[in-house]
Structure to design on (563 residues):
């Protein structure tokens, strides 16, 4: 080869390498800039990415605690303990799994001590692996872990800017079994079974057969159940528990009625560990005033924890409480739930937000229909409110995508919709929701499919989609809490803008693109000359004449300003 041509070729190759390196350096610099900006983004519950998991089904980090209380009878499919524990959640936080997914709050099923026996479902036993069958609200079930494990979980979560939401059950004890006697009649009712056709038949009743209902309406003082007293004495903590109860009732002036014992026991988790919020179970089945009492005690406990642990406080957000009113289509019906004869506005009784059972129906609509209607409802100056949107859960037998055929669409609609987003464990990895041989909600509760995440390229690609959207969302409160405006119907482009006190945020998103060169309007979100970063492709662009020109192989563009 001619020396001149060889030298020219070398120069060209060096130039190409230099250009490639420069591009990568610029992209890394942009990503670094955005990460620094994201770290400064304030937290708002309205925009949170809340990851919901079954403690027993997520990750088993301590096999030594898998068997307790001789819970060894054959169970119906997916109805027994499978080993997940508190340490398993902590381990995944430390690994960065949640941060990579853009999660800034974790809600896990109850971890208090469950009934020791099981109920016979005909095809096998069911144990309290799900956590909703309490035996002792003052102890943790050893299958889930210890108080020290819970303390470590909250500490590690807070170090990673992740809030912890526990599940609170006040409505009922666990079922009665040979190992678990019924609580005294001054504590619980065992009939009638709820019929759900009026306020009374939804509240003053038992949800199902053999699920004793706490007499939450009673103000009559009651003694502790003898079985609980004997349990505490055997464990060597009777005097301590009684002293704490005496102090609680003296401080509050509440009667020693059943609900106030449970309120005390649950709020202790806030005061002792700094729990950031509660998801309240079976809200519609308890008198609404009880929830206001509960929230008041949790607020007091959260303030005490903050005062006692100033170095651990994340921010000045108040204690968070979100409620489950099963079947509550709040976007369509508004803030008051209709029992048929009575309407109740739970936002007036301690709740910051409510679970939105309507979202899976909303997700059947096009993007603009969802986004505009939710933004208009949630940001109304006179009647606005918070909701927790979800597409899959542990007890909803008709999820949006049970066959896991619309996993990318699920992520895009859930994580870009106004409102708080609840990701159910395995949504991001297409965990199977149809388990052969299961009955009822058991099919929704398989163990987390970590093996697919580790080895399946399709799962890894899906997870990356959820990760990009999740990180973009928590970096920009405008997505969940801001005002929505469509900028273009074809291609579909919208902007979100948010302002609170001195903080402002704006993004522009384009969906269903064909890929390749695209011209995208940015509305009034960004001024001409502004440099924008596409958080999906990693490209940088500059605004010119109210638009940007971007070349991306993806069908989605997530634009934010480089700061």
């Amino acid at each position: 080869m001619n020396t001149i041509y060889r030298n020219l070729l070398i120069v060209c190759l060096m130039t190409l390498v230099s250009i490639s390196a420069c591009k990568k350096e610029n992209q890394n610099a942009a990503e670094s800039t955005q990460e620094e900006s994201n770290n400064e983004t304030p937290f708002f519950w309205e925009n949170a990415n809340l990851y919901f998991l079954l403690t027993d089904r997520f990750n088993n980090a301590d096999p030594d605690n898998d068997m307790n209380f001789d819970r060894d009878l054959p169970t119906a499919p997916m109805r027994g303990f499978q080993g997940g524990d508190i340490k398993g959640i902590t381990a995944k936080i430390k690994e960065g799994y949640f941060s990579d997914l853009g999660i800034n709050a974790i809600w896990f099923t109850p971890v208090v001590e469950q009934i020791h026996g099981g109920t016979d479902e005909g095809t096998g036993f069911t144990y309290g692996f799900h956590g909703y069958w309490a035996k002792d609200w003052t102890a943790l079930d050893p299958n889930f872990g210890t108080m020290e494990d819970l303390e470590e979980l909250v500490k590690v979560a807070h170090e990673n800017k992740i809030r912890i939401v526990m599940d609170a059950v006040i409505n009922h004890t666990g079922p009665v079994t040979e190992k678990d006697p019924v609580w005294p009649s001054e504590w619980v009712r065992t009939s009638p079974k709820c019929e759900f056709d009026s306020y009374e038949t939804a509240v003053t009743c038992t949800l199902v057969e053999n699920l004793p209902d706490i007499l939450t309406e009673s103000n009559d003082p009651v003694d502790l159940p003898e079985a609980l007293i004997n349990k505490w004495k055997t464990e060597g903590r009777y005097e301590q528990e009684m002293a704490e109860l005496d102090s609680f009732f003296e401080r509050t002036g509440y009667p020693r009625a059943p609900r106030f014992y449970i309120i005390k026991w649950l709020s202790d988790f806030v005061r002792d560990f700094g729990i950031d919020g509660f998801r309240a179970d079976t809200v519609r089945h308890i008198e609404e005033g009880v929830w206001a009492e509960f929230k008041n005690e949790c607020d007091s406990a959260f303030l005490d924890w903050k005062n006692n642990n100033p170095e651990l406080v994340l921010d000045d957000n108040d204690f968070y409480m979100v409620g489950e009113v099963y079947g509550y289509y709040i976007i369509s019906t508004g803030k008051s739930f209709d029992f048929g004869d009575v309407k109740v506005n739970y936002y007036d009784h301690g709740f910051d937000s409510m679970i939105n059972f309507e979202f899976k129906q909303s997700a059947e609509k096009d993007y603009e229909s969802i986004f505009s209607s939710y933004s208009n409802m949630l940001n109304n100056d006179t009647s606005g409110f918070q909701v927790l949107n979800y597409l899959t859960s542990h007890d909803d037998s008709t999820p949006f995508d049970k066959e896991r055929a619309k996993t990318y669409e699920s992520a895009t609609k859930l994580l870009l919709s106004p409102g708080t987003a609840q990701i159910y464990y395995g949504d991001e990895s297409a965990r199977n929701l149809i388990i052969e041989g299961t009955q009822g909600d058991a099919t929704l509760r398989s163990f987390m499919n970590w093996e697919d995440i580790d080895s399946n390229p399709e799962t890894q690609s899906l997870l990356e989609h959820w990760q990009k959207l999740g990180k973009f969302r928590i970096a920009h409160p405008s997505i969940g809490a801001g005002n929505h405006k469509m900028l273009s119907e074809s291609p579909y482009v919208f902007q979100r803008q948010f302002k609170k006190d001195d903080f402002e945020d704006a993004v522009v998103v384009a969906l269903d693109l064909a890929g390749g060169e695209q011209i995208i309007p940015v509305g009034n979100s960004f001024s001409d000359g502004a440099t924008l970063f596409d958080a999906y492709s990693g490209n940088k662009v500059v605004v010119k004449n109210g638009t940007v020109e971007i070349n991306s192989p993806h069908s989605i563009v997530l634009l934010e300003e480089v700061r």
